[in-house]
Design goal:
Layout (H helix, E strand, L loop, with lengths): L1 H29 L3 E5 L9 H16 L2 E5 L7 H13 L2 E6 L5 H8 L8 E5 L9 E6 L2 H14 L4 E6 L4 H17 L4 E6 L6 H13 L4 E5 L4 H9 L2 E2 L17 E3 L2 H13 L12 E3 L6 E3 L8 H15 L10 E2 L5 E3 L7 H4 L9 E5 L2
Parallel strand pairs: 1-2, 1-3, 3-4, 4-5, 5-11, 6-7, 6-8, 7-15, 8-9
Antiparallel strand pairs: 10-12, 13-14
Helix pairs in contact: 2-9, 3-4, 5-6, 5-10, 7-8
């Protein structure tokens, strides 16, 4: 009997030890650095927010960090964004990530208030940064936009391409112009029609703009907006489309490719630097951190069957040159559609000059839904 009791007691001790082991894992989680993420949309939106979330998830896992997420936060309400950020800080977040342009004012105010010097603020796009605790990051998306323009022109039969565009703002116009220049490299006579929808994301408005472009004779569509509504409109109309932000094909055989972000290429090394204490915003203009095809932040999805083989070869050759730093989109003589000079013969625009672009290049006709 005593032997049986001894065995039972030993078993109890083994199970108790195993239970304690589970508890130590929980303690490790409690020590993880918390990252507060402010999203403009749903993390399952099939577009920009999902792309951003997946990059954050990968980077957090790599660095043993914990994400605290706030979805569907308006980026046009500065006070609301500020309240969201301070709530995340109150929950113990030591890193705040603003995942849309419009959060910049709120995060800039908090970063420079003197109250949150121990918090690191990372903001996508926008002009705000300092040399202490706030970094803005972006990348040369004009590279992938140029390549997608080449694919669009190669697939077009009518030589008329449509572009659903968020706002007549520099970031958007850089993309429009790069897309157009890429298309013109394949067909100098191609025309690009743009409709500005004056919102970063609204599926109904995006679809209406896409249908407007289809009615105007466009047989390939692209977009700079948050949802996949333009892809779906193109599929319904039986025309081709490129995606945007995220390599998410919802148009089937009508899908040509997509310029998209691998956000982990930025977040993984940045989180590591914050964690080991080596992080310091550069203060470099226009962005503290600026990725590219070469760095892995900027990507182009695989090319669809509708892109002819010779065009695919040409696109891949240009992409290889970009990856080696041997091809710049805004180089040589380029004029705006009002006749003014954007880039002179023999000139290559610097990143800072690219981010001063105001307007569309020759070959673009733009209207607004306002």
């Amino acid at each position: 009997m005593k032997k049986v009791l001894a065995v039972l007691l030993a078993l109890v001790m083994v199970f108790s030890f195993a239970a304690c082991g589970g508890g130590s894992s929980d303690e490790g989680d409690k020590d993880a650095v918390k990252v507060g993420c402010i999203f403009i949309g749903s993390i399952n939106d099939g577009g920009f927010t999902q792309c951003m979330n997946e990059g954050l998830e990968k980077a957090a896992k790599e660095n043993g960090m914990e994400l605290v997420k706030k979805e569907n936060v308006s980026d046009s309400d500065t006070q609301g964004a500020k309240t969201t950020a301070t709530n995340l800080i109150d929950q113990g977040c030591k890193i705040i990530v603003g995942c849309s342009f419009g959060y910049g004012d709120a995060l800039n105010e908090l970063a420079n208030s003197g109250d949150y010097d121990d918090v690191t603020f990372l903001h996508f796009s926008g002009p705000y940064q300092n040399e202490k605790n706030m970094e803005n990051f972006f990348g040369s998306m004009e590279e992938a936009r140029y390549l997608s323009g080449m694919a669009a022109a190669a697939a077009s039969k009518k030589n008329v391409l449509g572009y659903v565009a968020a706002h007549p703002y520099t970031e958007v116009q850089i993309g429009i112009n790069a897309f157009t220049l890429g298309a013109q490299a394949v067909n100098p006579d191609v025309e690009v029609k743009v409709v500005y929808i004056n919102t970063w994301g609204d599926a109904e408005i995006e679809k209406a703009a896409a249908e407007q472009l289809i009615s105007a004779g466009c047989d390939v569509l692209t977009y700079h907006a948050d949802s996949t509504a333009t892809q779906l409109a193109a599929k319904e109309a039986g025309i081709y489309t490129t995606g945007w932000n995220y390599n998410n094909n919802v148009a089937g055989e009508n899908y040509l490719t997509a310029p998209y972000w691998d956000m982990s290429a930025y977040f993984t090394p940045t989180f590591k630097a914050i964690k080991d204490g080596s992080f310091k915003p550069t203060g470099t203009k226009p962005f503290s951190s600026y990725g590219s095809i070469e760095s892995g932040l900027i990507c182009l999805d695989k090319l669809g069957a509708a892109v002819p083989e010779d065009a695919q070869k040409q696109i891949n050759e240009v992409k290889d040159k970009m990856a080696k730093g041997e091809f710049k989109v805004f180089s040589g003589e380029i004029k705006y559609n009002n006749g003014k000079t954007l880039c002179k013969e023999g000139q290559t625009l610097t990143d800072e000059e690219v981010w001063k672009i105001q307007g569309e290049v020759e070959g673009v006709k733009a209207t607004s839904n306002k």
